[in-house]
Amino acid sequence: MFKRILTVCVGNICRSPTAEYLLRQQLKAHNVHLGSAGLGALTGHGMDESALQLLAEHGIDGAAHFARQLTPAMLREADLVLGMETSHVHAMIRLAPEASGKIFLLDKWLLGRDIPDPYRQQRPAFEHVYGMIEQGIHSWLRYL
């Protein structure tokens, strides 16, 4: 069982916190520390309003989230790191090569797709991304 799971995107206000909170909901009965961070985080900002609203519509409160900048230490401390895009995975490996064996794409067990960034787009883009993240999370559950 993974004890520390980190999800990563760019700004840490849309995709990675959505993944973090969906994982939190799925793994609430387990003793797992969940977090998220961004490669270019909007440090200190809360979740994007559309992402927050979608979580709320699914019974999840993401209001406590504040964006954090990804550090090499975060990558080293995590047992599993899930990136939203292939470019994120590569950037994380460059940031902490020693952590490369535990950094994967969220969509790894499905089609290996990048989960597109919905930032500054309309609600349908957020809905599409939410569905992709949800599918990615479910595909990982058997391994967690």
Short description:
The chain is of the alpha/beta class. The protein is built from five helices and four strands; from the N terminus they run E-H-E-H-H-E-H-E-H.
Defining key terms:
single chain; 144 residues; alpha/beta; 4-stranded parallel β-sheet; 5 helices; globular
Please describe what this structure looks like:
With 144 residues, the protein is an alpha/beta fold. 39% of the residues lie in helices and 13% in strands. It is built from five helices and four strands; from the N terminus they run βαβααβαβα. It has helices at residues 15-26, 49-57, 72-77, 86-95, 123-141, and strands at 4-9, 33-38, 80-83, 103-105. The protein has a four-stranded parallel beta sheet with strand order 2-1-3-4, with helices on both faces. Strand 3, helix 4 (86-95) and strand 4 form a beta-alpha-beta unit. Helix 1 (15-26) crosses helix 5. The model has no long low-confidence stretch (mean pLDDT 96).
